[in-house]
Amino acid sequence: MLTLPPTPLRPGDRVCAAISGGADSTALLLLLHAANTLPKNALGVGLSAVHINHSLRGDESDADQAFVAELCDRLFIPLSIHPVDTAARASTHGETIEEAARNLRYEVFNSLLAERAATHILTAHTLDDQAETVLMKLLRGAWLEGLSAIAPELTLPHGKILRPLLRTRRDDLREYLVASNQPWRDDSSNTDETFTRNRLRHTLLPTLRSENPSVDQTLANLAELAREEESRWTAELARLLPQLVLPGTPVRGGGRSNSTAPGEMSVALELDRLRPLDPALRRRVIRAAARQLGPRLSFDETARILTLAGFPPSGIPDPTVPQKPGSTLKLSQNLVAQRTLRELRLSVVPTT
Known about the structure:
The strands form three sheets. The protein has a six-stranded mixed sheet with strand order 3-2-1-4-6-5, sandwiched between helices. It is elongated and about 75 Å long. Helix 9 (about 215-245) crosses helix 11. The termini are far apart. It is built from twelve helices and 13 strands. It folds into two domains: about 15-230, HUPs (Rossmann fold, 3-Layer(aba) Sandwich), CATH 3.40.50.620; about 250-350, 2-Layer Sandwich (Uridine Diphospho-n-acetylenolpyruvylglucosamine Reductase, domain 3). Helices cover about 45% and strands about 15% of the residues. It is an alpha/beta fold.
């Protein structure tokens, strides 16, 4: 029989399980309840649940809510229900339905943690979800940090989100529910292939499994490797950036001036300090310097800035990018890169 995987939870923690009524979250709630009521080695946590009604499927959404309420009542688990208008949020903020739903969920999670209704929110993301997310990020051209996909643990200002089922297969959870005689709700929108994730789930991943039956685990392994690599790079950059990224512009007699046009922000990197860096580190330093100003660089934008600075990736310069001192590149997000005799300068210039 399936049991709750090891978690960093401690006796006395206040744990809130996010439950939609689907198989994965229903299994998570049952596993938590079982682990918390075992005669020996019980978790010893305060267990509650939260259901967010996204109001997207009319009567079906209401039936999901009723199902969750009945399940929590039967298990004597306190439940908070949060109806939200996902379609209105998407329209108001220019988000996709998926983005709006996620942002609304995290608003609820943050409020529960801030109100100290819970110290930890647990979600039912599975290994299958991880594989789908890695593939989605890969197809969209994500950097290494993007390929780390779903983190097992996320720290928010007032608590943590844990994903204890991230190494567990979706099919194993369904087998557990069947063996426990526990029904669940199927979300009809999960078959709608206008959503990218559903196309990957129902069309692309089955094709990939015909080439590699273990592709889900392979993609999840890639996420773990990317997460560890990113952690290593983050520590390295925290050590190096203060030595490499300079504020403002140099002034006669030494020192630097932070004065810029109203609303403009600027940093600089000395070319002589960039030169001895290996290409991987140089690329990350450029991206981190731009991030200090706000913009997130794309792969192509990073390559263009490196070429401007005289360090073209693979040693092959882009003929459309100038490399002489005084040259300038205008990029997205109001970012401007300029090469001087000794520096690469990055500025965010507000639109007029």
